[in-house]
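Intended use. Records like the one below are meant for learning the mapping from a protein sequence to its folded structure. Do not use them to infer anything beyond what is encoded.
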Amino acid sequence: MQPQMRQTTDPARESPASAIGASRIADEQPRTLRRWLRNLGIAAAAGVFLAFVGAMETSALPLWRRLLYWTPLMMAGGVLGHVMAIFVGRISWARVNLWAFGAVLTLALAVPSTLAVWAYTSLMFGGGRMSLGALPVLFGSVLVISAAMTALMVALNWPGRVTHAPPPGAAAAPVRFLERLPPKLRGAALYAVSAEDHYLRLHTSKGSDLILMRLADAIAELEGLEGAQTHRSWWVARDAVETARREGDRVVLTLKGGAEAPVSRPNVRPLRDAGWF
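Structure written out for the chain above:
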């Protein structure tokens, strides 16, 4: 689930590493465990919700029985989803496309989950509760739940988008977004773009200003500059990063000009592996 980012051999990019410290390998396992436990907790919460609403014609059952049915079932689905995401992440064309990854993972998850739901339902309520002929209808219901859970997990765990500078030796193409800079910022080096309500704040070498635009649209126009979406509300130019520090599971980047950009948890590892800090 990690985007491809270019490595750098520039020694100047190595300086921020000291701000993170030499313990990053030792810290990786606890962070991974916390992320895994968080995802499992989300699956359990989804099970509780489905029990309360009586999903898939279980509303006639007592609440305690619905909880006993849905909560373990959704937690098992969370474990299965984690395993399937690892395999889907090895498919090159799915790994780099959010929609492709979500679609493939949903289908890959729905098939074994349907069999698991059928088996668990038969175990909980007796063999006569659900026949093999009900599998096609059951598959449709499981597919909807799988799609919803996949969308939720991808939204929480998918790293931000990456923009790239032209390869060495290639002619530099115009960066469309730079044409949107207000007159007082024209010609400035762009350090970062951050979302503020419906506006974007531009952090540049000539100061900052606001423009009316969505961050997603801005990132599409920033292709041609080496940078990344470090947080749902921030895009940062790689050359603007001066130092980095850790704050729990997050990293905060200090940029030229003094602005500080957060790095959300899904983005920490891909940015670190790409040599940002």
